[in-house]
Amino acid sequence: MVVFTCNNCGECLQKPKVAKHFQFHSRCTPIFLTCVDCHKDFRGDEYVKHTKCITENERYGGKGFQLKASANKGERKQQEWINVVQNLLNSSTDLSAPERNILNTLSRHENIPRKKAKFLNFIRSVFGNRVNMTVIESLWTKMEESFKESTPNNQLSENDSNPKNGKAEQPEDNVSENQNNENAVKENGNSAKHNESEKEGKKKKSKKRALQTTETQDVEEEEENEKMIKKRLKTDLKETIDKIDKSQEEETTKFSWKNTIIEIVSTKGEMSMKKLRKKVIARYMEHSNNSNSEKATLKFDKKIKKVSEISINDEKVTLT
Questions:
Q1: Environment class of residue 240 by beta-carbon count within 10 Å: exposed (0-12), middle (13-18) or buried (19+)?
Q2: Peptide bond preceding 98: is omega within 30 degrees of 0, i.e. cis?
Q3: pTM for this structure?
């Protein structure tokens, strides 16, 4: 991964962390960076295009050092894939605004996966769940098409340079046919091993495809689970709000034992406890549509003790 040094404060920064550094450190602006490996200076947004730098072997390998093509094959493919992002930003005219914003962010990363399932997981880890999957699917298609357009010549040159894919083996086969029986047996053994290795390679490819399919299915299942959870939360929230509203309505229309007792006693001046209880309970039953008179009687006996505006003498109730 490319690493820079901030020439304002001297802090070492990996490429994905450069933007945040200058966002939260205003004293370091304007942007002025130096690559740790190649010592090149970059001002402003120039560092975004610096996606690859010299390796340690190239740096310390001495004069005339040459990196083996086989050792650099995977790195070259990854670099071509990263270049797709920059090529789309520079040349494509059919990018939407969200797609262009996502590509601008991806251009700061060097570990962009080349497989679709891993690419989707990478997008979620970078942007979270706020991205539109329709936009991501469209962007993946454009990146894949751009990558295919830029690689046919490279693939052709690799096939031409590899003698095992062409007819370069024919002279060796002719020589082996002229050798003794022992060499012929060895050749047959080697061909058998070659066939076995091809079978193993096919099995590994099929396993990889199965894993990719499984990963895609897992991603879809996670999305469905998230939708279900959100739906349940909305339903539970609505039910809770309805219960609160209902309880508030009940409180506003709650039966007042105290006011009813004082009102009835004030109209009569003085009355027996038995009559008062009968009238108050009748009003309560009418108000609450409650058919349980025993519970209403118990409530009346508890409530009347708390009414300080009345006095009770010999089962007679009067206002104080």
A1: exposed
A2: no
A3: 0.32
Distances (CA, A) of 284 to 173, 246, 265: 109, 20, 16
Convert the pLDDT of each residue in 261-283 to its tens digit: 999 988 888 889 999 999 998 98
Burial of 51 (0-12, 13-18, 19+ CB in 10 A): buried
DSSP 64: T
Q: What is the pLDDT of residues 73-113, one digit of tens each?
A: 677 777 788 788 888 888 777 888 888 888 888 877 777 88
Contact by Cβ (8 Å): 37, 15: no
Nearest to 276 by CA among 309, 268, 291, 307: 268
pLDDT of 53 strictly over 80: no
Looking at the DSSP assignment, which residues form a beta bridge with residue 12? 5
- DSSP label of 179: S
Please say if the pLDDT value at position 252 is more than 70: no
**What is the pLDDT at residue 169?**
41
Question: What is the Cα–Cα distance from 182 to 101, expressed in whole angstroms?
Answer: 65
Q: Residue 270: helix, strand or coil by DSSP?
A: strand
The beta strands (E) that lie in the chain are given as 3-6, 12-14, 32-35, 41-43, 270-272, 310-313, 316-319
Q: Are 91 and 106 in contact (CB under 8 A)?
A: no
Question: How far apart are the C-alpha atoms of 135 and 116, rounded to whole Å?
Answer: 14
Dihedral sign computed on CA atoms, order 71, 75, 80, 86? negative
Residues 29, 259: Cα–Cα separation, whole Å: 74
